[in-house]
Amino acid sequence: MADMKSGPGATPRRFSAGLTNSSATRKPDTALRRRWDLQVGKTVPLPPAELADTGEFRVSIRGTKVYDAFIANISYNSTKTDGTWVNSRYFPDMIAIDVVRRGTWHFTRPRGRDRVAVPAGQFIARYNNSSWQFAVASHTTQKVMLPVAHLGPLIRKRPVLGSSGSAEMRLLLAHVRMIDATLDDLSPAGVHAARNALVELTMGVLTQKADGDEPLLAPALAQAAQELANTHLADLELSPAMLARELNVSVRTLQRAFAVTNESVTAYIRRQRLEQARHALITPHGRPSVSELAAHLQFADSSHFIRTFKECY
Asked: Does residue 54 contact residue 23 with C-beta atoms inside 8 Å?
């Protein structure tokens, strides 16, 4: 079964679809593929599960079209490990980036030129053509597809693999999240600008170096720094210098990126720490003391914490 939902406008920017199969189905249902192509379109990949020979499976896919680029979140749950190798017949001549969230993707090309396993927490970027095959068991992944122009020379003939926690991938995924949050409100020009930033950030992933002077990257850099800071609010080392180091940019570049938020890096960290403290203080059970909160959130002492908290709230 497949179904599609799209946003407003002549050209849908969002869609979602589901696919289920029973163990009673011995071979792929060609009618299912035709229905998928009719409803979703051949530019959107039919999840590989439709070629599983045995076992029950369910696939869900939620996608976003950003001008000529494509972003998708795919979840595949199966009762049996699927060893079927599936041809990459969709998205020909594009750059494909798969960020594996759960499970493992296995990729191969004929004659053993490439055979790689990409576990959770890793990504693979590759030039997608019909020579690639892949196999999956239960997994979740985020897929980014981009046109080859400008990116083809960077990836050459070999795939690029790395950690999804790398500085460059943090920036790319932060931008992907911003696109998802704002896409419905963007004008056509805004969508095109978001797509251009997507290309620039992908170039950073492929070269393992982001261009700190590229103005298109400032919002994504600020977003990535904010997300990183939010996970380190209790760390003594949290500072603009620490965030810049983790994101592989200079402190000056990071501060310049934060200018678009009308808030300095230091002010953002202080505000988030105080907000975390506020939530802790209104918790009905297990509420920490003021001195415990001050120490946990790296304030000099309770008096400093109380004074700063009162200024904010």
From this structure: yes
pTM: 0.74
From residue 59, alpha-carbon distances to 55, 74, 176, 214 in Å are: 13, 7, 22, 38
The contacts of residue 60 (CB under 8 Å, 6+ apart) are 16, 17, 18, 19, 74, 75
**Domain extents for the chain?**
14-164
pLDDT of 137 above 90: no
Per-residue pLDDT tens digits for 39-66: 556 665 555 444 444 556 677 778 888 8
pLDDT beyond 50 at 160: yes
Closest CA relative to residue 165, chosen from 200, 205, 222: 205
* pLDDT of res. 227: 92
CA distances from 175 to 52, 86, 109, 172, 295 (A): 34, 30, 31, 5, 33
**CA 77 – CA 256 distance, rounded (Å):** 43
**Residue 34 identity (one-letter amino acid):** R
Would you say domain 14-164 falls under CATH 1.10.260.40?
A: no
DSSP string over 50-82: GG--SS-EEEEEEEEEETTEEEEEEEEEESS--
